[in-house]
Please model this.
Amino acid sequence: MPTTLTSKGQVTIPKQIRDALNLEPGSRVDFTVNRDGEVVIHKVDARPSRKHDRFEAARGKADVKWRTDELMALLRGEE
Model:
């Protein structure tokens, strides 16, 4: 499946490869070069990893009568 490099350094990923990796417009990919000098393309997980939000458990709980020490323990992630 030969392809041509553009003046901007871009190439079109052949349809057979796009289909095999289930790539769609906007899909993120990662390129690596293996020990044999071959380029390997990997699909990057589309969902960014979310950091744990320590305030999420308290959000929307304004009707609860929190004691300060209980609320601080919750926000600090203490059991």
Q: What stands out?
A: The mean pLDDT is 83. The first helix runs from residue 15 to 21. Strands lie at 29-33, 39-43. Residues 1-47 form a domain with the Pemi-like Protein 1; Chain: D fold (CATH 2.10.260.10).
